[in-house]
# Entry
Amino acid sequence: MIELNNIHKSFGGHDVLKGVSIKVNKGEILVLIGMSGYGKSVILKHVVGLLNPDSGNVIVDGHEVNTLKGRALSDLRSRIGFLFQGGALFESMTVFENVAFPLKEKIGLDKSVIEKKVHDVLEQVGLSGSDNKYPSQLSGGMQKRAALARELVWEPEIMLFDEPTTGLDPIIGHAILNLIEEIHNRLHFTGIIITHELERVFKIVDSAAMLHEGRIIESGRPDDILASENPLLRQFLSGDTEGPISYR
Amino acid sequence: MDFVRHIGGESIDILTRIGRIFNFLACSIYFSLTPPFKVERILKQIRFIGAQSTLVVLLIGAFTGMVLGLQGFHTLNRLGSEAFLGPMVALSIMKEMAPVLTGLMVTARAGSAIAAEIGIMRITNQIDAIEMMGLNPFRYLVVPNIIAGLISLPLLTGMFDAIGIIGGYLVGVKILGLEYATFFGEITTYVRVDHMMEGIYKSMSFGIIITWISCYMGYYTGSSGFGAEGVSKSTTRAVVLSAVMILVWNYFMTSFLF
# Structure
């Protein structure tokens, strides 16, 4: 279970999070929606201890993340997969080496097992035949799929996806979300997804929350969110430029 | 009052940075001495820092020896002491020129590349990705460079010693007409193994300085600027600080240890 309680965070005097509370039950996925640049990625980084809150606490499976250090923090992180917005692939390694990296370094599997797992997962994300390419030789969408493969290959208990579909064409974007759903059905990981692919993602998640100006303004089951009368949420879901949310 | 506050703030900031840089070194040494060791990565970095610097080190070594031979011969000739050209060239190269110039050359070639590579990894979340796997980025990025620097610099310095003396020999004996036996005979009389070891010990410390500073600057890219500008500043700082520290540390090693 992931629980954020009253998180406040500011950068250089600018308040980004102003009392964010979120709860994701074990085995469920929550989608976090909201305008770009409003701190959604900051929330994910709190979950894994890459950032610490100014106040409030983050609890993951009973561990208060912001008090963990050293080995205890590494142990917790070794159960969490994190898909970064830009993919964060190792640029000096091939796609195969990138995907094999956690299996080799984290788990220490045999070479033959690693090869099979890597080829299987690359096939799942539609990257068969790209094993020997370097990230710079791939398109943005392919890089994102390779990064997703690197996280999915070791089957983590908790998955955090920071915009897994951004920059992808609609077909590949849907394929990625289908893949996430398929793997969730198999592994039942607990997860948080940040995405703007709202129509599709609402069909695969268990709950949703909208972040606006540092606060969660609405949260609940996808159907409740879609039926909400909150004007901020309505404008965001419809994509209107006119309304209470100013994009300027 | 503002002035006092400003001075106080700056002082605390400087002390914090100094503390952080030495803490970085302490962590690097600790992780260098404790398993698991990333042997493959260490070998890769030895190839990068050491093997790929060989040509440039041989080149500057040869020309440094040659110019020492040239200047030394004319200076010693005025005193009627040109027989001491061999020891002069050999001692200058072994004790000072080889470790210092090798250190500066490796700083320019490999130190800048290390800082830039780690800096780019920082701004593209690659270091965060390693941490997120529950792995220690120090073991992958910092320790292999430090061990590679510690091994490569003495080897490069040894090559510089050899080629530098040959350079001095070519100019002193082959061009300016000094006797072969005089050149090398005086070297065997006046130069001892511990003279060479002075340079080797220095070069080992320079290997640590270069890789430590370069890794540190790359690792903390973002504290001095963002994106490409941050990487550029980190790289520049790595080269400047490494070069300055090599020269300063060289003075203290020479004056206190040898």
